[in-house]
Design brief:
Distance between the termini: 45 Å
Structural class: alpha/beta
Shape: globular
Largest sheet: 5 strands, mixed
Radius of gyration: 17 Å
Strand content: 15-25%
CATH architecture: 2-Layer Sandwich
Number of domains: 1
Helix content: 40-55%
CATH superfamily: Ribonuclease H-like superfamily/Ribonuclease H
Number of helices: 9
Order of helices and strands: HEEHEHHEEHHHHH
CATH class: Alpha Beta
Strand order of the largest sheet: 3-2-1-4-5
Length: 192
């Protein structure tokens, strides 16, 4: 799929998210565009990189590309539901970058409003370098948010599991209850 980015004459925008399934914290949707193809060589999906490698790629991306992200709060996810909150954040993100006639390449189940030229690619974060770049921006940004939350709420171990439903995290919820940053709608089975 690398050829999609290389063949396009117009700017290509890659979009991905991080934090769709955790029990706590925000979801982050990121867009990366204007990155030279040569700087994307060897990039991988954020989930397939070590934290250190993600940080190295993050620095490369912010140096050579344009990027934006939108954070979707745990309250928005609880109030609106994940799907509606994601759609609203996508609109906000695209308004922020104003892609015009640029083609938008989205990972997995993500979709942009129909007014945009777009292609959703299953496993796009593994197959398309510009989407992998967006996955790194989203993941590193969200992980940093969770590390900051860990300082405020050290009992939950957010710096280790980033809010995902690990055994340690679930045990902490059972012992201490929910923090103000937990997604209540995602934690019902744990606290019931």
């Amino acid at each position: 799929m690398k050829s999609i980015v290389q063949q396009k004459k117009q700017v290509v925008v890659g979009i991905d998210e991080a934090g769709r399934g955790p029990l706590a914290g925000p979801m982050v949707i990121a867009a990366v565009f204007g990155m030279p193809v040569s700087k994307l060589s060897g990039i991988k999906d954020s989930k397939k990189l070590t934290p250190r490698a993600r940080e190295v790629w993050y620095k490369t991306i912010i140096k050579h590309a344009k990027y934006k992200y939108v954070s979707v709060s745990h309250q928005a996810i609880d109030t609106m539901g994940l799907s509606a909150a994601t759609k609203k954040a996508m609109v906000q993100l695209l308004e922020n970058i104003n892609p015009g006639k640029s083609e938008i390449l989205l990972d997995g189940g993500l979709k942009a409003p129909t007014m945009y030229i777009q292609q959703t690619i299953i496993k796009g974060d593994e197959r398309v370098p510009i989407i992998a770049a967006a996955s790194i921006i989203a993941k590193v940004t969200r992980d940093r948010m969770m590390v900051r939350l860990a300082k405020k709420y050290p009992l939950y171990g957010f710096a280790l599991h980033k809010g995902y439903g690990t055994r340690v995290h679930c045990a902490a919820i059972k012992k201490y209850g929910l923090s103000p940053y937990h997604r209540k709608s995602f934690c019902k089975n744990i606290i019931s």
